[in-house]
Design goal:
CATH class of the largest domain: Alpha Beta
Radius of gyration: 24 Å
Number of helices: 9
Distance between the termini: 71 Å
Shape: globular
Number of domains: 2
Number of strands: 12
């Protein structure tokens, strides 16, 4: 073969290589190996009949389906999911309170839900009346380990915290008298009591409202694929515009729109 022929053949193979490489570079974000974590926090996410369920679990499942991502949802202790999202790329954690302290730690998509936080006690505890947050110091208060409510209370000088891995454990501790107060979100507390077979109107009372209204988001770890994050943003907007988001909301008979 002449030198011109060899150069022509080389150019042809180079062109073929570029054509083969282009589709790989243009692969959609669906090719990213995403890991998805929710926490045991009814009514937002929890396990029921062996599968992830809950308001936010259902929303995330719908988003995954819309994006054609065959990615399982793992319900794990909050601290495990949170640490994983802080340390590894392409991790989606839900539902995460968006705060100034966390702003630079994640890429945010949402909000999904919103609610106030209260200190709860058993209704029979007539002696538990708080006129300030400081008055709660010394009372054993149930919180979820590494949760925003635990951080808030510590920042405000409350040290008498009893940590658990999930909100249902705290509810059981309150019922057993192992804790006196329970720091929980306004939609979660009554839902968990109902889930445990108790009427919250008869058993549970708010004794103090924390200055902590939380908006819950999807949080993607830093270093996550930016195209993937953008696709989730677009899918959530589409979910809300289509009415499916509000149907999911209504199916839990709770929670105002964020």
């Amino acid at each position: 073969m002449s030198s011109d022929g060899r150069r022509g053949a080389g150019r042809w193979w180079l062109l073929c290589g570029c054509l083969l490489l282009t589709p790989l570079l243009a692969l959609p974000a669906a090719a990213v190996q995403l890991r998805v974590f929710g926490s045991e926090h009814p009514p937002y996410s929890y396990m029921a009949e062996g599968r992830p369920t809950g308001l936010c679990s259902d929303i995330v499942a719908s988003l995954l389906s819309r994006l054609q991502l065959d990615t399982p949802i793992t319900i794990a202790p909050w601290s495990r999911g949170y640490r994983t999202a802080l340390e590894e790329p392409n991790v989606l954690l839900f539902t995460v309170a968006r705060t100034p302290e966390r702003e630079e730690l994640f890429h945010w998509v949402g909000p999904l839900v919103s609610g106030e936080t209260h200190l709860y006690a058993l209704k029979e505890r007539d002696d538990l009346v708080l006129d300030s947050l400081a008055a709660a110091e010394g009372r054993k208060i149930g919180v979820v380990r590494d949760d925003i409510r635990a951080h808030f209370l510590r920042r405000n000088g409350i040290t008498s915290l009893d940590e658990a891995t999930g909100s249902e454990i705290n509810a059981r501790k309150l019922l057993m008298g192992w804790i006196e107060l329970w720091a929980e979100e306004e939609n979660a507390a009554p839902f968990v009591f109902k889930k445990l077979g108790h009427d919250p109107a008869q058993k549970l009372k708010k004794v103090y409202t924390l200055d902590l209204r939380l908006d819950g988001y999807l949080a993607f770890s830093r270093g996550s694929d930016s195209e993937l994050v953008d696709r989730f943003r677009a899918a959530l907007e589409e979910l809300k515009n289509s009415g499916e988001y509000h149907r999911i909301l209504a199916s839990y008979d709770t929670l105002p729109d964020p």
